[in-house]
Amino acid sequence: MPDGASFTASNFSCTEGERRYLTYLPASVSDGLQGLVVMLHGCTQTPEDFAAGSRMNALAEQHRLLIVYPHQSRGENAQSCWNWFRRGDQMRDRGEPAILAGLAEQIAARHDVPSDKVFAAGLSAGGAMAAILGETYPEVFSAIGVHSGLPVGSAKDVPSAFAAMSGNPMPRASTQRAPAARAIVLHGTADSTVHPRNGHEIVAQALEAGPVQTLQTEDRGQAAGRSYTRNVTVDGAGIALVEHWEIDGLGHAWSGGSPDGSYTDSKGPDASAEIIRFFLV
């Protein structure tokens, strides 16, 4: 860790509950923070594990970012999963979304982070919770990153969660929804834990309440030994509303991650770098 940086543990509590979290404050903070990123780990992971695997703290130094890693304890979920599949944790002002949004707002205010530079990203169950935050609190989170995650409302309990993970999400009721946060979605084509079909559904949800007129482009490329397809949807002003990365041969793992953490694959596009690029437009 660079001289002047800090990686500290704290607790946040509100009427909906409390969570432990780690905060990485970069040494470059003296030049002013450019944003805050809430990083949500996957099942069986810890904040320390996720920080090591994603290498997000290195990007925090480069881009002057404050990174927060909330911790889902086994007391809240036996596998330390964020409870994206429970009705009470899929809505505004309730459960885990309220806790995480409150945590982000408190830390952003404490460190004078601009209100339009607060973001959330996650892997698997953490990605599913990031998608929920983007829909329930778009005024708090300007953009989200969903890696190997699931769409909002795709399950209501454990059996339907496994069905959604296998590519059969619950249908959502057709209701009027407010525009969601901008989203970057990454998924491996060889993911046997969370079916890649879920990535397509996350994209559809992110766009369903957006502008009528958009432009979509597609390109293919290679990075660190894996090919990928990237679809980008922009609005009339040319701002990317959604990016969807499908990474060939990637399983249920953080693309371009470090072997120091679990559920990572060193091959492929650097998911952390692409997420930060998308956030900081």
Q: What does this entry look like structurally?
A:
There is one protein chain. The model has no long low-confidence stretch (mean pLDDT 95). This protein is 26% helix and 28% strand. The protein has 281 residues and is of the alpha/beta class. Strand 8 and strand 9 (226-234) form a beta hairpin.
Radius of gyration: 17 Å
Strand content: 25-35%
Uncertain segments: none
Give the neighbour order of strands across the main sheet. Answer: 1-2-4-3-5-6-7-10-9-8
Series of secondary-structure elements, N-terminal to C-terminal:
EEEHHEHEHEHEHEEEEEH
Q: Major beta sheet, specifics?
A: 10 strands, mixed
- Give helix % range: 25-40%
What would you call the shape?
globular
Number of strands: 12
C-alpha termini separation: 27 Å
Structural class: alpha/beta
* Mean pLDDT across all amino acids: 95
The tally of helices reads 7
Quick rundown:
By secondary structure, the protein is of the alpha/beta class. The protein contains 7 helices and 12 strands. 26% of the residues lie in helices and 28% in strands.
Keywords for this structure?
alpha/beta; ten-stranded mixed beta sheet; 26% helix; 28% strand
SSE topology sketch:
Blueprint (H helix, E strand, L loop, with lengths): L5 E9 L2 E9 L9 E6 L6 H8 L1 H8 L1 E6 L24 H16 L7 E6 L1 H12 L6 E5 L10 H8 L16 E7 L8 H12 L6 E9 L2 E9 L5 E8 L6 E2 L8 E2 L5 H9 L2
